Fold:
Amino acid sequence: MPDGAITTHPNANEILRLPLPRLTENSFSAGDSMLRVLTDDALFAACGTRIAFTTRAGGVSEGPYAGLNLSYAVGDARAAVDENRRVLCEALGAKNYMQSLVSPLQVHGSDVLMVEDDLDVTRERAGAGADAILCTRSNIPVLLCFADCVPVVLVAPDGSFAVVHSGWRGSIASIAGLGLRELQKATCCLVSEINCYIGPHIGSCCYEVADELIMQFIAQFGDACDAGEGHLDLAMAVTASLLRAGANEQRIAHSGSCTACHHEEYYSYRADAGITGRHAAFAIREERA
Structure:
């Protein structure tokens, strides 16, 4: 049993068991725009939660932000980002809930913020900084932005979810594992029944860092984080964090895409020399009778 894992609940057998996670590319349209995202259609059919890791396809941003840039904080025109977010929400069935969108100020920390009944309170807290949003409510879209850092989406059997931003600071602080435990506590399910999705991020092939940082990761997560020749494997650290928190290895799905290698499809801070847009991890839970 993983150290400190939360494993049981008296009503666990009564909770829906999700299909094993699988990420596939799918296209969604909104008017004349066609978006390509990584998603899990079987998950949506089972519990009503639509998750998506977006690509650059389908947006109106131009220049270094060309495509579906979803961040206001990178220098892109606000009107373009507004339109990109509108198109995303419409394409993924959240058009009527844009006013409820939660998109926090990301600060490379390890705080997990719960979506409260009072959305104004939630937004105030999100505006102060958070890198993981946990949502047990229906019809509340959640969006976090990325350009090399690791996006993680966690989905419980009842459709509740957490969206996590795991850069190197968040990864070494085990923010993915913290989010997993908080989601388990909020939904009273078996932690091993939660689906874990690791989206596109900079791969070990392109992530060269200082030896000192690699040693910190090895001390925390083991030698598997060391990809050799000064390269760090963030996905291995995130996976180790999830497994230590009690995740079932069969319920961890990886996109397998490196944002730096494929920066024509995704935004990459490193490959684009720091001037670029942001793709997103997005989730919304549909209300079902």
Summary: The first helix runs from residue 41 to 47. The chain has a mean pLDDT of 94. The two ends are 36 Å apart (CA to CA). Residues 193 and 234 are 23 Å apart (CA to CA).
